[in-house]
């Protein structure tokens, strides 16, 4: 894949005035804070204060620090975030170019701040990167297929269930320790129309 101008530039990107959110791209200095944020949103008891918890499905790590650092520094990949008032990341997501379309993942919002539009704003920013900066035709993601509420969240935002499923990486503890043996990912996709 070819590199795109502006990849991995840590200068903040500001959303138009209609939003109070300020976006920036992560640097490798953000890795510890991002690991803590993603873990708090998906694993353990702290995640239960939000609606994105996977605590009943998986234990262990949700994200590998070395892989995160690679995502931050490699071409055709950005980790976008919104900082809280205390300067720590409040929300983050990874967007990359994969197979000629955008790939969206590692989406996390502090569980005590979910349901306030922060995640919606970050998702729109990642779609803007894929659509406007990279001129890609669509965005894809994978979601554990038993997470019906999360899938419904994305469907309401224009994603469609493709019916394409991928295996869960059983045995690779970098992505968690499954609490059940029937996990798999479903691919969701949103096509960017001309008016998008």
Summarize the structure.
The protein has helices at about 30-40, 65-75, 120-135, 150-155, and strands at about 15, 20-25, 60, 75-85, 90-100, 100-110, 140-145, 160-165, 175-180, 185-190.
Give a structural overview.
The chain is α+β, with helices and mostly antiparallel strands and 196 residues long. The chain has helices at residues 31-42, 65-73, 118-133, 148-156, and strands at residues 13-14, 22-25, 58-59, 77-83, 89-98, 101-109, 138-144, 160-167, 177-178, 184-191. The strands form two sheets. An eight-stranded mixed sheet has the order 1-2-4-5-6-7-10-8, with helices on both faces. Strands 3-9 form a two-stranded antiparallel sheet. A hairpin with a 5-residue loop joins strand 4 and strand 5 (89-98). The longest helix is centred in the middle third of the chain and has 16 residues, at 118-133.
Annotation keywords:
196 residues; alpha+beta; two-stranded antiparallel sheet; 4 helices; 23% helix; globular; disordered N terminus
Q: Note the total helix count.
A: 4
For this structure, the quaternary state is single chain
Strand order of the largest sheet: 1-2-4-5-6-7-10-8
Arithmetic mean pLDDT: 83
Structural class: alpha+beta
β content, as a range? 25-35%
Question: What are the low-pLDDT stretches, counting only 5+ consecutive residues below 50?
Answer: 1-19
Strand tally is 10
């Amino acid at each position: 894949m070819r590199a795109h101008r502006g990849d991995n530039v840590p200068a903040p990107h500001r959303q138009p005035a209609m939003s109070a959110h300020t976006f920036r791209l992560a640097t490798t200095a953000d890795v510890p804070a991002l690991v803590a944020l993603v873990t708090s949103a998906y694993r353990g008891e702290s995640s239960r204060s939000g609606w994105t918890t996977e605590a009943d499905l998986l234990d262990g790590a949700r994200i590998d620090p070395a892989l995160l650092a690679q995502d931050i520094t490699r071409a055709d990949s950005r980790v976008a975030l919104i900082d809280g008032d205390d300067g720590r990341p409040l929300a983050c997501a990874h967007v990359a170019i994969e197979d000629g379309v955008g790939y969206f993942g590692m989406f996390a919002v502090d569980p005590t701040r979910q349901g306030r539009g922060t995640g919606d704003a970050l998702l729109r920013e990642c779609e803007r990167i894929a659509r406007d900066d990279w001129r890609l035709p669509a965005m894809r993601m994978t979601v554990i297929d038993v997470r019906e509420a999360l899938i419904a969240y994305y469907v309401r935002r224009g994603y469609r269930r493709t019916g394409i499923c991928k295996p869960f990486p059983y045995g690779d503890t970098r992505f968690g320790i499954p609490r059940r043996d029937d996990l798999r990912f479903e691919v969701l996709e949103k096509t960017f129309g001309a008016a998008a």
